Every structure is written in C-alpha cells, then in structure tokens.
Amino acid sequence: MVMNDADALDATFAALADPTRRAILARLASGEATVTELAEPFDMSQPAISKHLKVLERAGLIAVGQDAQRRPRKLNAKPLAEATGWIEKYRQHWEAAFARLDDVLEELKAEKKDRKRKKR
Amino acid sequence: MTQMTDNITVTITTPTDREVVVAREFNAPRALVFDAVTRADLIKRWYGPGGASMESCESDARPGGSFRFVTNTGGKQMVMYGVYKEMDAPRRFVRSQRWEGWDPGETLMTVELVEHGGKTTMTQRFVFPTAEMRDMVLQAGLSPKGMSAFYERLDALLLDL
User: Fold this and answer.
1) A97 has a chain B CB within 8 A of its CB
2) Residue B153 included in any domain
3) In a domain, B111, yes or no
4) Residue B122 near residue B111, CB atoms below 8 Å
5) A97 phi and psi angles, rounded to 5 deg
6) Domain holding B69: CATH number?
C-alpha cells in the first residue's frame, strides 16, 4: 500500500515537473478544453501536446470529458491536492525549524552589535 | 517575532526521485547563518523536530569531523549522526547522515549559502539512498506526529520485506 501511494505520487510529481504540463493544468483549471484548443497557445504540434496530455492522464491529473466527439480534457484536482498535502508536513517541519533559526540569527545579530558597542 | 517572516517561504523541490532540495532566505549575513547551522551550541537552539529540545548535540564542523544530534520527541529518542565530508566555510558543506537503529543507508546533505545584500539564501540538497526512503521522509515531515507515522510505515515496510 505504501509503495502504491508513493508510485502514484511519483507520477504526479513527474507530471508536474514540466512547465508545459503545468500550463496545461492552469488552463484546464478555468474549464475543459479540446486538444486543439490546448495546442493553440503553446505553439506546439498536436502530437506534442497529446504526449503531454498522456502523461497528465496517466498521473490521473486530467480526464476526458463527457462529449464523445470533442473529447475535451478536464482537470482532476484530487491527486494534485494529495501531492501538495503530502509535501505539506515536510514543508511545515522546515518552516517551523527555520522560524526558530530566524530567532537565533536575530539574537546573534544583536549580540554582535552589543559587542561592538562595548568596544567603543 | 521577525517582521520579515511574511515574505519568507521555504521552497521545496524534488529534482529526482532520490532528492529533495529545501531552500530559504534568511535575513542575516552568510557567516552568521553558517555558524547557526554548524556550531553545536547554536544548532541546539533551533534544530529538532517540532521544536523538541535536543538531548545532546555534537558537531565537529571540519573535514572528516563527526556530528551527533540526539532529539527526543514524546519519549522517543532519535539519534542522527554522520561525518562532514566537505567543508568550505562559510559557503558550503557536505555531510553524510544516518540514523541509529535504522540503517537504510547514508543520506548526503549538501548545504550552500549565497549572500546577497546582507541576506543569505540557504539551499539544502538531500540525496537519499533510495526513492522509498525519500518518500517516507517527505511524507513524515519529521514532526513528532509525522515521525510516529514514519515509524509505522517503516514497520509496515519491514514486514513486507
């Protein structure tokens, strides 16, 4: 079970690693679109876009909409939420540790100023 | 406490399936940041999962010098130890990390500090021995709660082997 979750997340992260694919997701966040519509703003051939769409589909990030003829793609936000939630705890760990580090640095800076003042 | 905190965000990226890169800007000159992340008396004041106090902290920040961090979260003692492999103060250092009582292999951490206008960006690059370990660490978040989940997952994983 652990491995399956991790595999799914790996697929999500791999899919998100590419800027074109992130742009496609951003576009789909505002509503479904056909392959032709998606290809337009990217200055890419339809086969190239289709390749990206396949990666996104495999990662479960997009799905094909109802219309059998137009086959519009639509966003599936769940794996995205899982991926960001997944890393969120790790982020919180570092945010908390670094906030404490900020305090240590402020204290060090103050100590340094103090020492300089005493020298004068 | 610090008024800058609002703008300061931790950037986390996963360049490969065995790596994690954690970057953050600090409002202090590089030499101070370097001290705070390598000197035992200073590490003690901020390191430690979920703000848990460190039971002990040794850090001999010289090439070949060793370190040993002992933390205790809710009665669970954790010991991380290793060796400073490269040391280029105050710019960069590389150290190996292992956990006592659990040995999936060595994690390499490379820390780089870049100063710009009195501020310092610290980048920590972790290369884990396996993709599985990276995933577990990312999932656990190393918080006390995350850590116990981490051990549960580890137990489950070990049972599967």
Assistant:
1) yes
2) no
3) yes
4) yes
5) -65, -40
6) 3.30.530.20
- The pTM of the full predicted model, rounded to 2 decimals, is 0.63
In chain B, the residue whose alpha carbon lies closest to the alpha carbon of A83 is: B139
Asked if A67 has any chain B CB less than 8 Å from its own CB, the reply is: no
Report the number of distinct structural domains present in chain B: 1
Q: How far apart are CA B37 and CA A119, in angstroms?
A: 27
Q: Look at A94 and B12 and tell me if their CB atoms are within 8 Å.
A: yes
Selection from A108, A5, A117 nearest residue B46 by Cα: A108
Look at residue B158 and tell me if it is in a domain: no
Nearest to A89 among B48, B141, B157 (CB): B141
**ipTM of the complex in this document:** 0.78
Tens of pLDDT, residues B116-139: 999 999 999 999 998 878 877 776
Residue A101 contacts B, CB cutoff 8 Å:
yes
Q: Which residues of B122-161 are buried (b: 16+ CB within 10 A; e: fewer)?
A: bbbbbbbeebbbbbbbbbbbbbbebbeebeebbeeeeeee
Question: Range of B29's domain?
Answer: 13-130
- Domains identified in chain A and CATH numbers: 2-85 (1.10.10.10)
CB contact under 8 A, A89 and B140: yes
